[in-house]
Design a protein that fits this description.
Elements (H helix, E strand, L loop, with lengths): L7 H22 L5 H10 L4 H8 L11 H21 L9 H17 L1
Helix pairs in contact: 2-3
Length: about 120
């Protein structure tokens, strides 16, 4: 993999900003930011549930140009379409062809290597 645009200063500043956000969160809330801890607290605890939800699925998560809620709705609709097809054909199932899978992986690897 070739790195074309190596930008250490913006990367350092972004990492520093994340570290500063964690420090502020700890000072003001008395706990550290960790996605696994926030996710488990969202599912199991009744305290700070809304805060944890906003942290996990806030408006700037996902594809960085839309909300993760849009992504979740799209995945939900995709799953519903699949279930509707299964209802119409009860003895069927989704079987991915190996050639399709390999072709998809080649395309993904090609785009990854561009960056």
């Amino acid at each position: 993999m070739y790195i074309i645009n190596f930008t250490p200063i913006p990367a350092f500043l972004g990492g520093s900003l994340i570290g500063l956000a964690v420090a502020f969160f700890f000072v003001f809330n008395g706990r550290l930011i960790g996605v696994s801890g926030i996710a488990s607290n969202f599912l199991t605890s009744k305290d700070n549930r809304f805060d944890n939800f906003l942290f996990l699925v806030g408006p700037n998560t996902g594809l960085s140009h839309t909300s993760i809620i849009h992504v979740m709705e799209s995945q939900y609709n995709y799953a519903l379409d699949y279930l509707k097809n299964l209802k119409n054909k009860p003895n069927s199932y989704l079987n991915l062809k190996e050639s399709v899978f390999k072709n998809f992986n080649k395309k993904i690897l090609f785009f990854i290597n561009l960056f």
